[in-house]
Amino acid sequence: MTVTTRTVEEYIVAFDDWRTEAMQRLRELVKEAAPHSAVAIKWAQPVWEWNGPMIWMKASKDHVSIGFWRGAEMEDPSKVLEGEGDRMRHVKVRSVDEIPADAVKDLVRQAVKLNTAKGNPTLGR
């Protein structure tokens, strides 16, 4: 399913199933942990920025992912991050009840700190 949207809200409600509720909850968690971040559709998905992009969210057929540009640099005591690349990591959610709220908020706070200290992760390495 390809979703063409202009706003984050349009992206979220376009799925009209459990993924919409999960993305709304994830958006609330990001707002709680990084209230001054900006969010917009970039790369065809919601992207939060603070001194450059730091978090993305994407709905797939059977899950919703919330990802972190600097995920490979983050501490993950709850062991919720997935991925094997040298930079990004993500959390896969398969139901609203499965959202690890405290872990997500911690990761969001780490993303803000990393982008504050290191700048835009899309500009060089």
End-to-end CA span = 33 Å
Percentage of residues in DSSP E strands: 15-25%
Number of strands: 5
- Helix and strand element order: HHEEEEEH
Instruction: Give a quick account of the main beta sheet: strands, pairing sense, barrel closure.
Output: 5 strands, antiparallel
Structural class: alpha+beta
Structural domain count: 1
CATH names the topology as Aspartate Aminotransferase, domain 1
What is the second-level CATH architecture? Alpha-Beta Complex
Q: Report mean pLDDT, rounded to a whole number.
A: 94
Radius of gyration: 14 Å
Q: List low-pLDDT spans.
A: none
**What's the tally of helices?**
3
Report helical residue fraction.
25-40%
CATH class annotation? Alpha Beta
Q: Give the overall silhouette.
A: globular
Widest sheet, order of strands = 1-2-3-4-5
Describe what this molecule looks like in 3D:
The protein has 125 residues and is α+β, with helices and mostly antiparallel strands. The chain has a single domain, classed as Aspartate Aminotransferase, domain 1 (Alpha-Beta Complex), CATH 3.90.1150.200. It is built from three helices and five strands; from the N terminus they run H-H-E-E-E-E-E-H. It has helices spanning 8-13, 18-33, 101-118; strands at residues 38-42, 45-49, 53-59, 64-68, 89-93. It has a five-stranded antiparallel beta sheet with strand order 1-2-3-4-5, with helices on one face. Strand 1 and strand 2 (45-49) form a beta hairpin. Helix 2 (18-33) crosses helix 3 (101-118). The chain is globular. 30% of the residues are buried. The model has no long low-confidence stretch (mean pLDDT 94).
